[in-house]
Each structure stands twice: as structure tokens, then as C-alpha cells.
Design goal:
mainly alpha, 2 domains, 4 helices, 2 strands
């Protein structure tokens, strides 16, 4: 619970959930200041999605002879990007790590790979 792990991220879906989080924050405020952040919840990718994406990337790479197909795909405009701050204060835009994708982003990338595959003559994914 939050009382034991104040750095925990909590997803609030109901008023009851919010009430429990409120109580945990109030209790924690007795000993330390708290940073509370509110943002929309985006479900993380599923294990099934991740497995499918990795199989698709591997199959594309094998067919095309590209040992770093994931690296190649990260240069395409459909791959999500994130802004990262450098130690010198500058900001760089980088491809988002697949481990940080939401379920929605993972689905969109899978669909983009189907579009890419449709443009490669003679290629078909094995598990369609």
C-alpha cells in the first residue's frame, strides 16, 4: 500500500480507490512532503502484444536480411518518439522504448508493421 511505499504509482478508477489514496497521502504527510501527479491512465502494453510485435520484427528482419530491424523501424515516422532532457539542459527527441508503450501505441505499431509488410513483395507473416 501507499503507506509502505510512498513512491508507488496508483491507478484510481473509482471514488473508493480515490478515498484510499487520499488517506494514504494524508498519513504520509505526517512525516514527509508529497508530490501528487494527476494524469490520464493509459493501460500498458500486454504481454501478448509484445510477443506479437517481437515476432513480427524478427520475421521482417530475417526476410529483409536486416539484423537490426528494430533499429531500422525506429527511424520510421510511425514509431512513437519522446523528448529527453540531457544533463546540459538541452532536449533531444528519441524513439520511444517499446517497453514504455501503452497498449494503444503497441496496437498502432503492430498495424503499421502490417502496412510495411504489405509493401514487401513475397513477404507474409507466419501467424496471421
Amino acid at each position: 500500500m501507499c503507506e509502505q511505499h510512498p513512491d508507488m504509482i496508483r491507478v484510481v478508477k473509482t471514488v473508493k480507490d480515490l478515498s484510499a489514496v487520499d488517506r494514504a497521502i494524508i498519513k504520509a504527510l505526517d512525516t514527509t512532503a508529497m508530490l501528487v501527479e494527476y494524469k490520464p491512465y493509459k493501460p500498458p502494453r500486454t504481454l501478448r502484444q509484445s510477443r506479437k510485435l517481437h515476432v513480427m520484427i524478427r520475421e521482417l528482419g530475417e526476410f529483409c536480411g536486416d539484423e537490426d530491424m528494430k533499429g531500422t523501424l525506429k527511424t520510421f515516422t510511425f514509431w512513437p518518439e519522446v523528448m529527453k532532457s540531457r544533463h546540459d539542459g538541452s532536449v533531444v527527441v528519441k524513439p520511444k522504448s517499446e517497453a514504455d508503450f501503452s497498449a494503444e501505441e503497441e496496437s498502432a505499431l503492430i498495424e503499421a508493421l502490417y502496412r510495411v509488410a504489405s509493401e514487401i513483395e513475397g513477404f507474409e507473416f507466419t501467424n496471421d
